[in-house]
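Attaching the record inline, Q. Sequence:
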Amino acid sequence: MTAYAALRAQLDTLTTEAFRPELADIDRLPTLEIARIMNAEDATVPAAGAGELPRIAAAVDAIAARRARGGRLVYAGAGTAGRLGVLDASECPPTFNTDPQQVVGLIAGGPGAMVKAVEGAEDSAELAAADLTALGLTADDSVIGISASGRTPYAIGAVDFARSRGALTVGLSCNAGSALAAAAEHGIEVVVGPELLTGSTRLKAGTAQKLVLNLISTVTMIRLGKTYGNLMVDVRASNEKLRARSRRIVALATGAPDAEIEAALTATGGEVKDAILVILGGVDGPTAAALLATAGGHLRAALAEAR
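Structure, as predicted:
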């Protein structure tokens, strides 16, 4: 059997690659009908992920524990999966004021693969090991391998290398019994079924992976004290919209008038969390910073100490 024949036989076993004969004439349908079919397909994704919530929660608790002691969160994938990891990582600094080096997205083929396919990159487990070596991976880090098929060598290679270095590992796939989930300590398999377009895993599988990454990063940050209730109190005010949002967050948290909010933000160098502590805790800016440092950045704990 040739290498291509063996790979084809493997793909034939994957749910994400299955052909749906009932959609064989979809190109003949009116545009609105195609849109309705696709919308109905997308609506099934959250339910497919619901059964994985206990495994996702266990992974989040393990990741948060390592992040709390300085470990990094690293996503590794190829193609759509890799791009989704890079996207989630890139949104953490403005949303949660994390250091860009603390949540990292690796895509097979490097940054250029974000916008243009790098042929063959996904087939190299060695490339994943090299990329993680370049990061100086440690046992405090957490690595999430992402692959719709669950067989991508780059993603599996990342997980295998990470485990060999004592790092925490998560395997996110959209096929049951995947090699990726089996390789990781925490296997997450969101089985969304065959795609509208056969094998086009940028569709339901991509949506599922995005939802899971949203869950992992958001709940991890909640556990790390990056929020106060459902307010993004660690938001980085890097543009006019975010500066306005910062003031709104302080107002929602404290109910203080605008003048008091401006004074608190001025006293804390624009730090939202510190400004809330100044207002609610009745302390000055330096004291707020010190209390938050002692509390590991958890605003509720700092407030309890201030009161």
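The chain has a mean pLDDT of 94. Residues 206 and 245 are 30 Å apart (CA to CA).

More tomorrow.
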